[in-house]
Amino acid sequence: MASPVPVKEKKLMEVKLGELPGWILMRDFTPKGIAGAFQRGYYRYYNKYINVKKGGVAGISMVLAAYVLFNYCRSYKELKHERLRKYH
Amino acid sequence: SDGAPGPGHWDADAAAGGLVDLAVPGGAFSGRRAPCLKNPVLGPGVLQAIRIFHTRQPSLAPIPCVPEYGGKVCLGLIPKEFFQFLYPKTGVRGPYVLGTGLILYSLSKEIYVITAETFSAISTIGLLIYVVKKYGASIGEFADKLSEQKIAQLEEVKQASIQQIQDAIDTEKSQQALVQKRHYLFDVQRNNIAMALELTYRERLHRVYREVKNRLDYHISVQNMMRRKEQEHMINWVEKHVVQSISAQQEKETIAKCIAGLKLLAKKAPSQPVL
């Protein structure tokens, strides 16, 4: 595709659906790249919700909710047996 | 003739000098001539004065200020960006309908299983919400006070440093102003020197006068002495000759005359009481 901006530089939201596989493949998958991605994500969240003058409960509550959800997904396999009805 | 952008010599020069400017990504890359050797006539001190620092925009600076409020979150869990994302297609109620639908779906399909823990979760979350709603503001104010104290401390340090530097500047300026008033000092010194010169001159003049007077006095006293000596000598000589000229006979006659005269006097005044 002859687009003025090269695909690699675009952010995820601006990548068109057809370009998505190519975009994913072009990402940096070295350990350094992955660590960089985690760092960037962490600092993005940190600077947006926690490192502010008047933060609220949203900063930690979102992290706790994600943690709750994550553990629920992990333990769904055992929870399946405690269902009230067999057929849904 | 410098191919690099005009300002920002410092970066290239620092790179040439072995330092890496971390504010600029890839700040150590070559490709620019070091401008420090352009004019070898100037000494290094002069060149430092005309070097321009940091006038180009580095890409990582300036560091943005800490924002006042965090990202907006609805229900304490879902960022507002999600609502904005769905707004064009579904309007305002879209995300809430989606949330309700998802909850009912997970309940009905028992993706979320209702167990004993559900009730403990409900009570826990209810308690948390109650605490947050009731005491959230006061806790926030407390935290704000703490951070304000910290900021005030740092600000104090900064202000103290600024004040120090300002004082140093003022001292420097006043001392520079003093330089303008040096001429008073020099005038006073010149006056002192002139007075000292005058004093010495007059002292020596007086001394000259005294010495000359001394010499003249000497001559005068010599003359006086000579005069006196001559007088005395002459008087002595005259007396001696007069005495010599009085012969013995003349002396006897004179004495007899004196005695006669005294007798006459004694006769003339016998009635005078003798006291």
From TrEMBL, chain A:
<comment type="similarity">
    <text>Belongs to the ATPase F chain family.</text>
</comment>
<protein>
    <recommendedName>
        <fullName>ATP synthase F(0) complex subunit f, mitochondrial</fullName>
    </recommendedName>
</protein>
<keyword id="KW-0375">Hydrogen ion transport</keyword>
<keyword id="KW-1133">Transmembrane helix</keyword>
<keyword id="KW-0496">Mitochondrion</keyword>
<keyword id="KW-0472">Membrane</keyword>
<keyword id="KW-0066">ATP synthesis</keyword>
<comment type="function">
    <text>Subunit f, of the mitochondrial membrane ATP synthase complex (F(1)F(0) ATP synthase or Complex V) that produces ATP from ADP in the presence of a proton gradient across the membrane which is generated by electron transport complexes of the respiratory chain. ATP synthase complex consist of a soluble F(1) head domain - the catalytic core - and a membrane F(1) domain - the membrane proton channel. These two domains are linked by a central stalk rotating inside the F(1) region and a stationary peripheral stalk.</text>
</comment>
<keyword id="KW-0007">Acetylation</keyword>
<keyword id="KW-0138">CF(0)</keyword>
<keyword id="KW-0406">Ion transport</keyword>
<keyword id="KW-0813">Transport</keyword>
<dbReference type="InterPro" id="IPR019344">
    <property type="entry name" value="F1F0-ATPsyn_F_prd"/>
</dbReference>
<dbReference type="GO" id="GO:0046933">
    <property type="term" value="F:proton-transporting ATP synthase activity, rotational mechanism"/>
</dbReference>
<keyword id="KW-0597">Phosphoprotein</keyword>
<dbReference type="GO" id="GO:0042776">
    <property type="term" value="P:proton motive force-driven mitochondrial ATP synthesis"/>
</dbReference>
<keyword id="KW-0999">Mitochondrion inner membrane</keyword>
<keyword id="KW-0812">Transmembrane</keyword>
<dbReference type="GO" id="GO:0005743">
    <property type="term" value="C:mitochondrial inner membrane"/>
</dbReference>
<comment type="subunit">
    <text>Component of the ATP synthase complex composed at least of ATP5F1A/subunit alpha, ATP5F1B/subunit beta, ATP5MC1/subunit c (homooctomer), MT-ATP6/subunit a, MT-ATP8/subunit 8, ATP5ME/subunit e, ATP5MF/subunit f, ATP5MG/subunit g, ATP5MK/subunit k, ATP5MJ/subunit j, ATP5F1C/subunit gamma, ATP5F1D/subunit delta, ATP5F1E/subunit epsilon, ATP5PF/subunit F6, ATP5PB/subunit b, ATP5PD/subunit d, ATP5PO/subunit OSCP.</text>
</comment>
<feature type="transmembrane region" description="Helical">
    <location>
        <begin position="55"/>
        <end position="73"/>
    </location>
</feature>
<dbReference type="GO" id="GO:0045259">
    <property type="term" value="C:proton-transporting ATP synthase complex"/>
</dbReference>
From TrEMBL, chain B:
<keyword id="KW-0007">Acetylation</keyword>
<keyword id="KW-0496">Mitochondrion</keyword>
<keyword id="KW-0999">Mitochondrion inner membrane</keyword>
<keyword id="KW-0813">Transport</keyword>
<dbReference type="InterPro" id="IPR013837">
    <property type="entry name" value="ATP_synth_F0_suB"/>
</dbReference>
<keyword id="KW-0472">Membrane</keyword>
<dbReference type="GO" id="GO:0005743">
    <property type="term" value="C:mitochondrial inner membrane"/>
</dbReference>
<dbReference type="Pfam" id="PF05405">
    <property type="entry name" value="Mt_ATP-synt_B"/>
</dbReference>
<keyword id="KW-0375">Hydrogen ion transport</keyword>
<keyword id="KW-0809">Transit peptide</keyword>
<comment type="subunit">
    <text>Component of the ATP synthase complex composed at least of ATP5F1A/subunit alpha, ATP5F1B/subunit beta, ATP5MC1/subunit c (homooctomer), MT-ATP6/subunit a, MT-ATP8/subunit 8, ATP5ME/subunit e, ATP5MF/subunit f, ATP5MG/subunit g, ATP5MK/subunit k, ATP5MJ/subunit j, ATP5F1C/subunit gamma, ATP5F1D/subunit delta, ATP5F1E/subunit epsilon, ATP5PF/subunit F6, ATP5PB/subunit b, ATP5PD/subunit d, ATP5PO/subunit OSCP.</text>
</comment>
<comment type="subunit">
    <text>F-type ATPases have 2 components, CF(1) - the catalytic core - and CF(0) - the membrane proton channel. CF(1) and CF(0) have multiple subunits.</text>
</comment>
<comment type="similarity">
    <text>Belongs to the eukaryotic ATPase B chain family.</text>
</comment>
<comment type="function">
    <text>Subunit b, of the mitochondrial membrane ATP synthase complex (F(1)F(0) ATP synthase or Complex V) that produces ATP from ADP in the presence of a proton gradient across the membrane which is generated by electron transport complexes of the respiratory chain. ATP synthase complex consist of a soluble F(1) head domain - the catalytic core - and a membrane F(1) domain - the membrane proton channel. These two domains are linked by a central stalk rotating inside the F(1) region and a stationary peripheral stalk.</text>
</comment>
<keyword id="KW-0406">Ion transport</keyword>
<protein>
    <recommendedName>
        <fullName>ATP synthase subunit b</fullName>
    </recommendedName>
</protein>
<dbReference type="GO" id="GO:0015986">
    <property type="term" value="P:proton motive force-driven ATP synthesis"/>
</dbReference>
<dbReference type="GO" id="GO:0045259">
    <property type="term" value="C:proton-transporting ATP synthase complex"/>
</dbReference>
<keyword id="KW-0138">CF(0)</keyword>
<dbReference type="GO" id="GO:0015078">
    <property type="term" value="F:proton transmembrane transporter activity"/>
</dbReference>
<dbReference type="InterPro" id="IPR008688">
    <property type="entry name" value="ATP_synth_Bsub_B/MI25"/>
</dbReference>
